[in-house]
Amino acid sequence: MSSTKKVTPSGIVTTEANERVIPASRRADGSLRKERRVRPGFVPQEDIIRYKNKFVAEREPDPTPTVEPPKTKAQKKNAKRNAKKKDGVKVAEEEKELEMPANEIDQEIDNLQDKVSNITISSEDTQSFSDSTVITIEQLEATAKKIKALEKKIRQIERIKEKEARGEYYIDLFQGKFTMSRFVRASKFRHVFGTAAKYENCFDNVKVSANAWDTNLVKVNSLFVAINWNAGGGGAFAVIPHKNVGKISDGIPLYRGHTAPVLDTDFATFNDYVIASGSEDSKVMIWNIPEELGEPESPDIEPVAKLNGHGRKVGHVLFHPVADNVLASTSADLTVKLWDIEKGQEKQTLQGFVDFIQSISWNYNGSLLATTCRDKKLRIFDVRSGNVIKEASSHQGIKGSRVVWLGDTERIVTTGFSKMSDRQLFLWDTANLDKPLKSIMVDTSSGVLMPFYDNDLKILYLAGKHILDILYYEFENDELFYLTEYKSSEPQRGMAFLPKRSVNVSECEIDRAYKVSSNTIEPISFVVPRRSDAFQSDLFPPTFSGEPALTADEYFSGKNAKPKTISLEHGFQAKEKKEFVSSAPKEEENVVPTPKTEKEYQDAYHQLRQENDDLRNQLAQRDVTIRALTIQLEQLKAGSS
């Protein structure tokens, strides 16, 4: 056969004469197989060029020259899981082997390196150490293994020190040992986990308000859950005792009195049987709560006080953390008002806003109030003087922003969105608002982040509206350290946290949230598991007692005080009901009887239509008068010039 130019994968050869042939070969029995020509145009299956994406080829690693890449078989799901388990066991064994006192780690490295460097092999097939110990040739193999193990241990210890420098290892201060951690740092809250209540311990058939105002929808105290209710005929909300879990009756007694939807509620800080509400009708109302829920179709509850002063809808209400009967309310009239609800008096008005107020938060002793606003500004007010003492540009996104004061520190946290709609978390020093101490891009979800802070344990919870997760952070040394997250199967529309004095101490429940979904309210317990049944004082330090430290008069006169605290060692003890009585003047109302017959409805319709026509005529007359006065003013100006 003539010399070849090209051989295809199927064995077809192209000769110098440009002929395609199958070369001669020998059969298994030794007979000769002659050379055969291949018909022009014929392409065997093996020679068909298959399409391959060039970008995929570029991503594949180049094999080592002259080395055939190993042929690996794809692992099945169980095989992958078993391999991960083996890797985990191997890592755990290495961790256990490497555990040693932290203060001896450097000395151990020096000793091991000295031992390895001082080992020598003599010409007489003996091995000598610096301490003149002689080992025979029969022990050489065992000694070599020991040397190899020591060198490996040195390398492992050096890797630990490198990872520790990068923050991948932490020192367990309680055990004094090096330990590997997926959570980067030592914390007793690494294993906080959330557990949703069983269905029979949830509140079902809840008619949640469909109003679009950005609020948490729900508030919780030691005895009751309050929820903005979807009801006709004006605004309403419901207050349900904790013990009344299960399906809520359709005829539940509601708290009516507002003539427009209720936007926010808040329980009194020092009286579990008092609640305030704000509504689109621009009013703030105070209510007494009965001890029992009441039978279906029972009369609705009436307010005991009505606070008038806002010119537009009231978006938020928030009681003072230290002084009794002091309430803050925000309004679309761009003001925050401070009230003495017992006297029914407006005590202070905070101004300086240029757009809707989105959230408010008191500091630890209630002397300052932080606000976020739709104008993308963070402001801090001295409440009693009414002055803005600090102001800064905050989140630049157009969606809602929230603020929460970090307990007894001078730090606050805000949540919001960037211009690109990334969810953000900012940590601020209230003494200097030029820029945040820390800025965290949480994720790109669209739900507003609702922040809740546990001052006792320094844990920050972030619950996203209309999404599934709750994130936990630990605040320490001006840093927010991510702990973990809780995921549920249904997105939350709103959330509130139970006061710390009411948690289940015996089960190591550090916090409890109440999540509002489409038609349910679901309790979620956050637990730090402990083996001991003894009281865990590190998880439950003295907490807010629910007793006022100041009266409203003392507070508005300029006094400050810290909240009173109580130990949780003996668990929660409910207080006796204290009826709230307001000395506010009663609001005179013109009660119009409701029409009952068809004739009465027609008469009422014609009467309202006549009143409407009269009002239009009055407006037209005022327009004429205004135009006449405008002409006279222009004539006077022309004459004087």
TrEMBL record:
GO molecular function: actin filament binding
TM ranges: none
PANTHER family: CORONIN
Organism: Cetraspora pellucida
Superkingdom per UniProt: Eukaryota
Positions with biased composition (Polar residues): 1-16
InterPro entries linked to this entry: Apc4-like_WD40_dom, Coronin, DUF1899, WD40/YVTN_repeat-like_dom_sf, WD40_PAC1, WD40_repeat_CS, WD40_repeat_dom_sf, WD40_rpt
Stretches with biased composition (Basic and acidic residues): 47-62, 579-589
Coiled-coil features, chain-numbered ranges: 102-167, 598-625
Bias kind Basic residues: ranges: 73-84
GO cellular component, one term: actin cortical patch
Keyword field: Actin-binding, Coiled coil, Phosphoprotein, Repeat, WD repeat
Protein name per Swiss-Prot or TrEMBL: Coronin
Domain spans labelled DUF1899: 182-246
Subunit and interaction comment: Binds to F-actin.
Entry-linked Pfam families: ANAPC4_WD40, DUF1899, Mago-bind, WD40, WD40_4
Domain WIBG Mago-binding: 18-44
Sequence similarity: Belongs to the WD repeat coronin family.
WD-type repeats, residues: 255-289, 307-349, 350-391
Annotated region described as Disordered, given as residue ranges: 1-92, 579-598
One GO term of the biological process aspect: actin filament organization
